Every structure is written in structure tokens, then in C-alpha cells.
Amino acid sequence: MCGRFVSISEEQLKDILNGVGQDLDISDMKFGETFPTNSSLVETSGKDQDKLEIMDWGIKTEWKDYKTGKTTKNNLINARQETVKEKVTFKKDFQEHRCIIYASAFYEWQNHKDKYLVFREHQDILKFAGLYKIDKDNEPYFVIVTQEATPEFTVLHNRLPLMLEDDEIEDYLNGEDTGKWTKPKSYPDLKWQLVEKKYE
């Protein structure tokens, strides 16, 4: 899974916006370590051209147990690529609302204890595959699509984000063949390093 990631820097964000000639209110943007419910830079498919947005991480859901009458609330942050085309929660949005989440790295915990920073050796900016849902107030929220871990990465975790190369972005956002995105990819340049614990 992906439960925390590192955002791109403010300078990188401004460079991206200047490069496409787009202006965004970035006052809600979370820089540095990013948690679920924080805001991040997301690229979505536009009618005439793809566009950049600041969007919150996590889709809010509710389930009611009709036997007990209790309602359970949850915040979904990931979608498994293996089931994203069939799962009721995601399948319509995976067809119509795919997106790219910009990051510089992500975190994973080995044995739920040791925290590692995970990055790609020759890429300053990572592009996670994602999808978003628009709620009843017309506000969009995104989740990150995850895949099975590569054999090398299983020493840390059994899942990792589905990451896209620059030449895959347009096809992911606008292509009709969604089946290709349900298969795991390999990342030869994936690296990780232990994050030192901070003690007070």
C-alpha cells in the first residue's frame, strides 16, 4: 500500500505550473511528508487538454449494517490495480476519472516498525497512477492505484504505487485500453533508505 508520500517541492510545483501556463491557488497544498486527507498536485484529463488541480487524498465512504443499524465511515486511500476495474467503489471512476499524482518519494515500513524512504534513482518527480471521485458537494478526492511489489521490494512490503513514465501519461489519462494498467510493472531504478528515528 501507500500510506504516506513526499510531495514535490514548492519550487517544482511552480516550475510545472509555469511550464503549462496554468495558475493555481496552492495555499492548501501540503509540502513535504504527505498524509491521507492532505492536499497534493494532481493531473486530470480535460476536455481539450489535461489540467492540473490541487486535490485532497482519500475517498470518504460509509457502510450501514442493517442488522445493527450502525454506520461505519472510512477513508479509502489506495485502489488495487488487480480489482480496480471490477470493484463497485472504483470501476466507474477508473473508466472516467483517472489522474496522476505528483510526488518525489514515498514511505514504507518494514515489519510495521522501520521507516524507509523509497525513491527512483534518476527521477526527481514520481507520477503515481490514480483515480478520483467527485462527492455530493462537487469536490474531488483521489486515491493512489497500487500494484503487487516487485520481487526486490518484497523485503519491505507486498505492495507499492503504480508509477508511470512520461510517455505513458497521456495514454493513462485518455486511453481506452484500461486493461494494461491492471498488470504490475517493474522499476529497476527503485531504491530505499532507512529513515533515522528522531528522539526527543
* CATH architecture descriptor name: Alpha-Beta Complex
Q: Give the N-terminus to C-terminus distance in angstroms.
A: 29 Å
CATH level-1 class: Alpha Beta
SS element count, helices: 3
Low-confidence stretches: none
Biggest sheet, spatial arrangement of strands: 2-1-9-10-14
The CATH homologous superfamily name equals SOS response associated peptidase-like
Please name the CATH topology: hypothetical protein yedk fold
Number of domains: 1
Using only C-alpha atoms, the radius of gyration works out to 17 Å
Largest sheet: 5 strands, antiparallel
Helices and strands, in order, run as EHEEEEEEHEEEEEEHE
Helix and strand composition category: mainly beta
Backbone shape: globular
What integer is the average pLDDT? Answer: 91
Percentage of helical residues? 10-25%
State the total count of DSSP E strands.
Answer: 14
Strand content: 35-45%
What labels describe this entry?
200 residues; hypothetical protein yedk fold; five-stranded mixed barrel; globular
